[in-house]
Design goal:
mainly alpha; rod-shaped
């Protein structure tokens, strides 16, 4: 657990952020900066973009395997034309 997570834990127990930050040797502004970053990481849009990127990578890898299997782009085009 890092210092900012410790502040979160103490905050839930009722300890003021400022006193926890001072005790742990971090600034209150850095705590809020960390908290904002954490919130951005878990936003629905970010999760959707990450999922889309992973799906794109997966399709790209599968396409690459298919090209390797067929042997060349031209053979792949010929194969598609026959379907």
């Amino acid at each position: 657990m890092n210092k900012f997570e410790e502040i979160e834990k103490r905050k839930k127990q009722g300890t003021p952020i400022a006193s926890s930050a001072k005790e742990l040797g971090v600034s209150v502004s850095n705590y809020y900066y960390w908290k904002a970053k954490q919130k951005k990481k878990s936003s629905p849009v970010r999760r959707a973009v990450k999922k889309l990127r992973m799906e794109t990578i997966e399709v790209s890898q599968d396409t690459g395997k298919l090209f390797m299997f067929v042997g060349s782009v031209e053979q792949f085009k010929n194969l598609l034309g026959k379907i």
